[in-house]
Amino acid sequence: MNTGLAIVLIVVALIAGLVGGFFIAKKYMMDYFKNNPPINEDTLRMLMMQMGQKPSEKKIRQMMASMKVQSEKQNKKK
């Protein structure tokens, strides 16, 4: 019976570790992306130039503001 109990405890510990690791990694990545957004003004400017648009500073600021508002709405839903 000792061997059976040991196997059950190992499986339970493995599952608990996987679930805990998932949530810790998720929290870490959410904080990372909140502090370091993947798209910044320079990236947005480069994308617009590649699409053939001349990026004005006003347009860049508007797009960044709209992306920030959308990001905050998504965070509130969660």
Helix-strand string: HHH
Class from secondary-structure proportions: mainly alpha
Low-confidence segments: none
Give the rounded overall mean pLDDT.
Answer: 89
Main sheet properties: none
Percent in strands: under 5%
State the distance separating the first and last CA atoms.
45 Å
What proportion of the residues is helical, as a percent range? over 70%
Overview of this protein structure:
With 78 residues, this protein is mainly alpha-helical. Helices cover 83% and strands 0% of the residues. It is built from 3 helices and no strands. The chain has helices at residues 2-35, 41-50, 57-77. The longest helix is centred in the N-terminal third of the chain and has 34 residues, at 2-35. The N and C termini lie far apart (45 Å). 0% of the residues are buried.
Task: List strands and helices in order, with pairings.
Elements: H1 2-35, H2 41-50, H3 57-77
Task: Give a nutshell description of this structure.
83% of the residues lie in helices and 0% in strands.
Could you list some keywords that capture this structure?
78 residues; 3 helices; mainly alpha; single chain; 83% helix
